[in-house]
Each structure stands twice: as structure tokens, then as C-alpha cells.
Amino acid sequence: MLTTQPLSFVSVLFFVLFLSQPLSSLSQSPPPSSSDSVYNSFLKCFSDRTKSSQTQNVFSQSNPSFSSVLRAYIRNARFNTSSTPKPTIIVTPRSESHVSAAVICSKPLNYVLKIRSGGHDYDGLSYISDKPFFILDLSNLRDVSVDIAENSAWISAGATLGEVYYRIWEKSRIHGFPAGVCPTVGVGGHLSGGGYGNMIRKFGLSVDYLIDAKIVDVNGRILDRKAMGEDLFWAISGGGGGSYGVVLGYKIKLVPVPETVTVFRVEKYINSGAVDFVYKWQFVGPKTDPNLFMRMLIQPVTRNKVKTVRATVVALFLGKADDVVSLLRKEFPELGLTKENCTEMTWFQSALWWDNRVNATQTDPKVFLDRNLDTSSFGKRKSDYVATEIPRKGIESLFKKMIELGKIGLVFNPYGGKVAEFAVNATPFPHRNKLFKIQYSVNWKDNTAEIEKGYLNEAKALYSFMTGFVSKNPRSAYLNYRDVDIGVNDHGANSYKEGEVYGRKYFGVNFDRLVKIKTAVDPGNFFRNEQSIPTLPIAKGAEVPEPGTARRWSRVGGAAVAAMVVLHVF
Ligand SMILES: Cc1cc2nc3c(=O)[nH]c(=O)nc-3n(C[C@H](O)[C@H](O)[C@H](O)COP(=O)(O)OP(=O)(O)OC[C@H]3O[C@@H](n4cnc5c(N)ncnc54)[C@H](O)[C@@H]3O)c2cc1C
Ligand SMILES: *[C@@H]1O[C@H](CO)[C@@H](O)[C@H](O)[C@H]1NC(C)=O
Ligand SMILES: *[C@@H]1O[C@H](CO)[C@@H](O)[C@H](O)[C@H]1NC(C)=O
Ligand SMILES: *[C@@H]1O[C@H](CO)[C@@H](O)[C@H](O)[C@H]1NC(C)=O
């Protein structure tokens, strides 16, 4: 069985690869000449389709509001400069049918359509492009409706996590949702990319709690889970939204949280045992009681004029202080945790505390509704996964390296517990069995091209230093920690090959299924960005595979794809 199917598939691919044109004609045909005419034709189409004048919701570069609308959801100052590429048009839909019209009206214009919800993409992919592009900004689609009786909520793509937490808090002190710790992150990018926070060990990922979703597909149709089918629903549950359509929102299941939770923070420096502290953390953080999440922050600092490293545990315990103190006295005496180090509060207050509000119990909950940010530092992030503990000597050499580099910090996020209980292919997120995730993190205030290059190189240098300690074949990365260094796609003739490079790092064994779904739902590759899922190369004019065909391919899966790459090389 398995020998005949791949063969016929390979011969088909042979034709595909050698006799066909790439599908990417979209990105290669020149966009219409004048941006005025593009604006006018888009606006006419959009107004016709929505049966009203839409000048309020479509911004050309000459609109006086253009730059404030653009800037409102830029969260990285690196992409807020005069030389940052700007969209020809920004569309800000106010209803689902607006989104549908925006997709239909952009399609014939041959522009890249960038979809933006909260704008927190670390490399700005939701609002920049080196090709002519539009931004579809969903920040006005921000309804959150919580149904405590049903234990669920509808959360729109343009809502922020802070709004989601706030609306839950309004109705209940014992319900929560396992998602990111930064309240201004958008639902659209966060959930379509997986989503995790300080309850990952107790509950898993945000996408482990999806009940339903709504999406606008490439034909402008509004589809719920039933209408889109399980393949597409699976793909947008962590496979990155921007490859398949525009996510309008998700229906989520709420989780139970105790009335009292505990937070604490403990710091060590090299001269107070930071090496042993971090070394030991690896054996406790990912294995302890799933109610406990201990994030480890590692940062080079100067203290009393000496360069050293600070290791900080920041923790949430879903329970009382006494219980976590006695748990950690046994499991992690190096931490030296006492009750005085702990603060008890409600779960919602702990979300405020994690957002660096020291006085969480006195903070107005409404700060989580604040959207008027329009400031940010310059930043860069990268990610890695660790599957076996780093040796003590390794930690030592790491600290030395970090002091030598001087700026870049690391965040170790423990896994284990519930996140590992779901199958690796339950959602597109494949990293469930890892010990912990590393985030490389550097921010800076004043910028020049030179300074920026220095920081970006520092991030690359530490990433390269870590090679021996982290996952390999493929070296894994977390989609929501967007990092264009791991590969980008020009969507030309090599789109599939380029896509494999970053795609296997982000999605591991789930990459092939994502490609099949992408090929079935968006064969013309309209929804694309620098790291979107590529389509399988298919001859122009050839039949587009039906979802049924795609499923048949999944049985040949890896073998066929491997064969294709080999053929391509020759
Ligand atoms: C300060 C900060 C803190 C963070 N903390 C966490 C954390 O605790 N946990 C975590 O998991 N991640 C965290 N992240 C990463 C975050 O989850 C991702 O950046 C996420 O993609 C942001 O979603 P967004 O809607 O704000 O981003 P956007 O920049 O709007 O979008 C990100 C990507 O998703 C696509 N996209 C956005 N909306 C849609 C949509 N509606 N339909 C289809 N595609 C869409 C965009 O095109 C883009 O490719 C953090 C990021 C920042 C900047
Ligand atoms: C923890 O509490 C002890 C007192 O019990 C105190 O000496 C120590 O400084 C505290 N540590 C932190 C990190 O606050
Ligand atoms: C917390 O708030 C109180 C009153 O608002 C203030 O007196 C105190 O200094 C604050 N504590 C910290 C650590 O900011
Ligand atoms: C973008 O730059 C403008 C100045 O040009 C500044 O006022 C604004 O705060 C910046 N926004 C972000 C998010 O960096």
C-alpha cells in the first residue's frame, strides 16, 4: 500500500515541479499604478458591497488620520519610523460584513492584505511588508460576551486579553481563561497562534479551550466551525490566522480559578547562588504541582559596579500562600520562600500584578480596558525549546556569555502538567512535551541603525551560543514569538521550500497537515505574509485538490514531501 501511493504522488509532483508555473503570479504582477486610483476603486467596491459610504473606514495615506490609525496598534518602535513601509490603504471594518467586503474588494487589486488585531507581532508582520500592501485592522471588532451559566464566552478578534479578563471578572471571581500575561495583546493573533500564560501548566494553551470560531474565507464567506469544517478549525487553533482567512472571533470555554491565588517573586545574583538556583529550577519548574507556574527571568545587570546575572522567579500559585510555601520548602529549598514573600489576591488581581502593577490589590481594574498606548520601546524576540536539563556547567557558561554580551535577557517558561496531556497533533502547536520554552528578549530606548544592528546581532549571538542546549531537527520555535531570522517566504517559485524552513520549526509534525489545509482553502495564496503556510506547488490550470483529496495525501505525508524536496534539488 504505502509503496504504490507515494510513487504515483511523486510522479505527479515531478510534472508539477518541472512543467508548471509557480502559483505566485499574485505577488509578481505589478500593483495598479496610482495609489489614488487604488483607493478609489477599493472605496467604490467596499461602499457598493456594504451599501453605505465608507470614507470613515477606509484610510488612504493622504487622510489626516492615516498615521494615528496606523500607529494605534504598533507595539514595536522598530516599525514606527519614517522609513518603515506604509500601507497604501488601511481598512477598519465595523462589522463582519465589512470584513467580508474588504476581502472581496482587495482581491482583484493584487496587494498583500495584512491582518491586524492587537498589533503585538514581535516582528511587525501584521502591519509592515516589503511589497505594496493594505492593512485590515480589526480593532473595532472588540465585543466580548461572557456567559457564566454556559461557562463560555465569545471573544472577537479585535478585543484585547485585558478586556477578556475584565469582562470575565465583571461576572465572576472564580472563572478565568488561560491566555497571555500582557493585557494589550490581541485575541486575533494570540489565539490563532496558540496562546499561553501563567496557567499553562494547570490548563494548557488558550487553543485547548476553543469551542467555535468565525472566519471570513478567501471568497468572503463568513464561516463558523460547522461551515468551515474541522480541518480549517484545527488550522486556526494555533496554525497562525494569517494563512487561511480573517478570524472574526472565537468561542472559548472558561476555566475554574480559586477565589484566592498567590503570587511571589524571588531574586538571586551570581554571588547569592543564581547558578544553582537556575540549574535546580529546571528539575522543579516543569514537574511541580500544575497549580504552580514559576517563570525564570535571567538578565545581565550591573550591581555595586560589578557585572553579574540576576535570576528572578516570578510565580503564580492557584491556591493559598501557606500551601505553596510548604510545597516549595520541600521541592525547592534553594528558593528560600517564606510567607512574607507571598501575596494573596484574586485571580484577576494576579493578572494586574503580572502586568507589573506592584499594588495589584489597589489598582483600578479598568486599566485593563486602556488602549491608548501609542508608545513602545525598540525590541527583538526569539525562541527555543529545551527538552533535557542544561548541565550546571552549561548554566555557568551561559551566564558568562550573557555578561559578555551585556544586554539580552532570557525568560524560561516551564511546561509540564496539562499542556503535555493533549496529543501533539491535537492542535497545530507541537511543542507540548518540552521541558521549557526560552524567550530571548531585548528592548532598548534610543535607536540608530547602528544601535539596532548591535542588539539584533546580540540576539543572534546568544541564540547561536544556545545551539547545544536546545531542541534540534528541527530547532523549534513558538509562532507567537515571531522571529523572521528563522526564515521568510517571498512566495515565488520556491515558496514551499522556503515555507518548510520556518514552518517545521514552528509546527513540527503538524506542518504537512497545515500545508494541505492551506492548499485546499486558499489555493491562490491570497492570505500570505512573510511566514505564512505555503501551498503545495500545483500546476496552473490543474484541478485544485478538494479537502477530500488533501486528506488522502495525509497518508503519504512525510514520504511524499521528502521526495518532492529531493526532486526539487535535482
Ligand atoms: C508585550 C507582549 C507580551 C506578550 N505576551 C505573550 C504571552 O504571555 N503569551 C503568548 O502566548 N504570547 C505573548 N505575546 C505574543 C503574542 O501572543 C503574539 O504577538 C500575538 O500574535 C499577538 O496577537 P495580536 O492580535 O496582538 O497581534 P497582531 O500583530 O495583530 O497579529 C499577529 C499575527 O496574527 C495575524 N492575525 C492577527 N489577527 C488576525 C485575525 N483576526 N485573523 C487572521 N490572522 C490574524 C497577523 O496577520 C499577524 O501575522 C506577547 C507579545 C507582546 C508584544
Ligand atoms: C523573602 O522574605 C524574607 C523574610 O522572610 C526576606 O528576608 C527576603 O528578603 C524576602 N525575599 C524577597 C525576594 O522579597
Ligand atoms: C501601594 O499603594 C499605597 C497606597 O496607594 C502606597 O502607599 C504604597 O506606597 C504602594 N506600594 C508600592 C509598593 O507601590
Ligand atoms: C511612534 O512615533 C511617534 C513619533 O513619530 C510617537 O509619538 C509614538 O509614540 C510612537 N509610537 C510607538 C508605538 O512607538
From TrEMBL:
Domain FAD-binding PCMH-type: 83-257
InterPro entries, per database record: BBE, FAD-bd_PCMH, FAD-bd_PCMH-like_sf, FAD-bd_PCMH_sub1, FAD-bd_PCMH_sub2, Oxid_FAD_bind_N
Location(s) in or outside the cell: Secreted, Cell wall
Main localization category: secreted
Obligatory cofactor(s): FAD
Cleavable signal peptide: 1-27
Keywords: Cell wall, Disulfide bond, FAD, Flavoprotein, Glycoprotein, Nucleotide-binding, Oxidoreductase, Secreted, Signal
Top-level taxon of the source organism: Eukaryota
Any GO molecular function: oxidoreductase activity
Similarity comment text for this entry: Belongs to the oxygen-dependent FAD-linked oxidoreductase family.
Identification of the protein by name: Berberine bridge enzyme-like 19
Organism: Cardamine amara subsp. amara
